[in-house]
Amino acid sequence: MGTGYRLYLPLATLVVLIVIAGCSGGYGPTLPSPDGGDGPGPGGQFCVNVVNGEGAPVDAYIHINNSAVGEVPRLQTGPDGRICFSDLEVGQYGMTTAAAGFRTDHQIVEVVSEGGSVTVVLDDPVEGTPAACPTVTFATPQLNETAGTAVVSGDVANADSTSAVILHNGQPNVVGLAADGAFSQLFFLTPGVNTFQMMVGNQICTVIAPETPLQVTWTPPAGSDFVFRVTLTWNEATSDPDLHTWSPNLAGHSSWHNKSITGGQLDVDDTEGFGPENFTATQIIPGRWRVAINSYDLDEATRYGVTVRVVTGGLASNAVSRVFGPHTFTTDDAEEYPVAAPNWWRPFDVVVTADGAVSVVTADNQVINNGAETTGVRTK
Fold first, then answer.
1. Fewer Cβ within 10 Å of end Cβ, the chain: N or C?
2. Which of 247, 293, 240 minimizes the C-alpha distance to 271?
3. Could you say which architecture CATH assigns to the domain 5-122?
């Protein structure tokens, strides 16, 4: 059975850690500021609002983790369902939200220098309370040396959620949990040692396991590196969002119906799971690459959230790692054009220079149609 950090606090400790934050009526922990150095620096105040499906506040417990800042205590929002964190470093975090009577929510959030907030909707009721904290058991990872991937799998006992967070080299990734607690997720590896831990919470506590991270070492074979990779994940297994990527000047369109284009390719169209779907740019083609997410099918869900990450590879001349979302979809359209809200989301564009420098920029207002057609619906 796996072991991990059990992150729940005696009331006396909790009182010491909680201070009034600068949010209306909210409570929040004041964390130590970064110790200077070469780190990314402090972000602005980050607030979490927790509501039920009808929009009413929920008294909940929040845990935020990022390996760059260590463990952040699991703290209570209070009756207004709001909590604010001060002096978190800029970066990506896995976050658990637990409350009596609901399945625990796991998602990825990003703290930026300007600060920000996120609203967590708990609308999946569950009966009873788990008997104990979650426990995690990992199987031996299945390594594919040629593809540079590893399947990380195992099971979670005492879970009250359909998801969890796996930290891959400290970066959070939402993964699905089956009804029996089993999980299995494909990861693209970075050259060298790759580490894996799971963060999973229930109504009792949040656990990081194992204490000593699981390690997978990968040496890339010749020709396996890339410029940048865009990864899409989501939080409802029955929903079907799709990742779309256009190469500069809209010369190529990679999606479920045309995975490979000049300069890159989509790996899979996942229609029955939580993702990931990955587009990998394998050649330096200068210009603006456009990224969009289409809500193809809600299926059994009335709403679902999607998260998109972009990272650079060894062919890029700089290092980039950003996460966007979660973005909530409440409609679907079976890929209707032109690309426009609410059935599409344009999280960002990727600009590549001739020397391989990669920057992630705000999506432009370029009109994107269905090839030569100005409108239309494409179905699977």
1. N
2. 240
3. Sandwich (2.60)
For 149, 224, 281, 312, the CA distances from 146, given in Å and listed in that order, are: 8, 8, 17, 19
Q: What is the domain partition of the chain in residue ranges?
A: 5-122, 135-218, 228-377
DSSP conformation letters of 210-256: EEEEEEEEE-PPTT---SEEEEEEES-TT-EEEEEEE-GGG--EEBT
Match 């927790």 to its residue by tokens: 50
Tell me whether the CATH fold assigned to 5-122 matches the one assigned to 135-218.
Answer: yes
Average pLDDT in the 342-370 region? 95
What sign results for the dihedral spanned by CA atoms 356, 362, 365, 371?
positive
Q: Is 20 exposed, middle or buried (0-12, 13-18, 19+ CB in 10 A)?
A: exposed
Find the range with the poorest average confidence among 162-171, 206-215, 221-230: 221-230
Copy the structure tokens of residue 286.
């200068």
| Averaged confidence pLDDT in the chain | 82
Residues 6+ apart with CB under 8 A from 240: 271, 296, 297, 299
* CB-CB contact of 245 with 266 (8 Å): yes
Domain 135-218 homologous superfamily, CATH: Immunoglobulins (2.60.40.10)
Asked if residues 49 and 42 have their Cβ atoms less than 8 Å apart, the reply is no
Predicted confidence at residue 9, as pLDDT, reads 33
Q: pTM for the whole thing?
A: 0.66
What is the second-level CATH architecture of the domain 228-377?
Sandwich (2.60)
